[in-house]
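[audit] Reproducing an earlier prediction to check determinism. Same input, same settings, fresh worker. If the tokens differ from the archived copy the diff job will pick it up downstream; this log only records the rerun itself.
[audit] input (432 residues):
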Amino acid sequence: MIFFKKALISLLALTTILGGQAEAKKQKKPNVIIIFADDLGYGDLSCYGNPTIKTPNLDNMASNGVKLTQFYVASPVCSPSRAALLTGLYPKKTDLHKGVLFPNSKTGLSSKYPTIATILKTQNYKTACIGKWHLGHLEEFLPTSNGFDYFWGTPFSNDMSRKEQQILGRKNYKYQLPLMHNSDTLELDPDQTQLTTRLTDKALGFIEENRKSPFFLYMAHPMPHVPVYASDKFKGKSLRGKYGDAVSEVDWSVGQIIKKLEKLKIDENTLVIFTSDNGPWLVYKTEGGSAGPLRDGKGTTYEGGMREPCIMYWKNKTVNGGICTQITSTMDILPTIASLTGCEAIETDGKDITDYIMQPEREFNKETVFFYYSKMGILEGVRKGAWKLLIKKGQKELYNLNQDIGECYNLINEEVEMASFLEILFSKENTN
């Protein structure tokens, strides 16, 4: 009888353990959060070398995760860049390569192209887009038509507003900036000093509500796109002026999201990715950002227009303080998420970079070929390894980016063989 009782207790214990393991396995699919800033430059975070803008939460995220130093966007302007992030495709393949969309645009992201949200819905994820969309304001192009259960934010850029354009003296501008919930307009020309705070509150609410099920949050900040705004708790606090105030508030928002994950004890099952859509808008001088050591900024195919800060953090999964120097891009994010969540693979222009972010110190032999498309979708450059060839208006430029990150020294006449090799890759891509 004693033996029977012990055996029964052991059996019950084993059943409990196995049941717990089964439950844990059932909940193993990771949550995914992408935080996408607007017009943030490569040199705008303190963990990327900015001396005056303080970004303690992003610095902490980098210290506990992986910082990517050669991370690219597929376009140097907003709409095509966002299309590439969500679909994993160069913008020409989604027909969104010819510049940004406007309030009178009749096009947008077609639902025939699967997005990150679309593929995660096949795995029963809850999905939300909170913030700036800018991939079409008509209902057929909104987030809710592209895999997102929930949208709360603005359909286009924060400067596409009658209120803001009138400040610039354009009195005939007729469009107002809508603040939307799904396809309904809640307000017109909302107080932009409160946008970062309000969007953060919505994001925290979505995380709380969906803490027990796998979720995907695409948090797309309207800041620090011009006109830059910050709430009273950040206004006038940064040495970098209004722009620094706005970046500091975005950093605060990141901190709030990380704290919420920790409080709910789901930080060990959540991948958080932070990056931006394109380089800084340099024409606005101190009210625009900085590309740090990189050449030029938004709207150009020099490094400052298309190389972005990127931090990936997954507690106890990513290497603390890891630095990934591999050539990567926003187009790699969809296949990486698909791999991590068990989604069926789809054809993209990106690659699964799980190994890169989990083993950033490892040397990988495979060299990525990356193509630089202009803000109007014209092929202007190609990179493989250290070498980058630009062909613009018949002029050719060749740079060794490992030795010359600022693209100061054109080696087109010295490295003839390398230039010829890259020009072949360029020509092949141009004929596709």
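[audit] rerun output stored. Observation attached for the diff report: The two ends are 78 Å apart (CA to CA).
[audit] end
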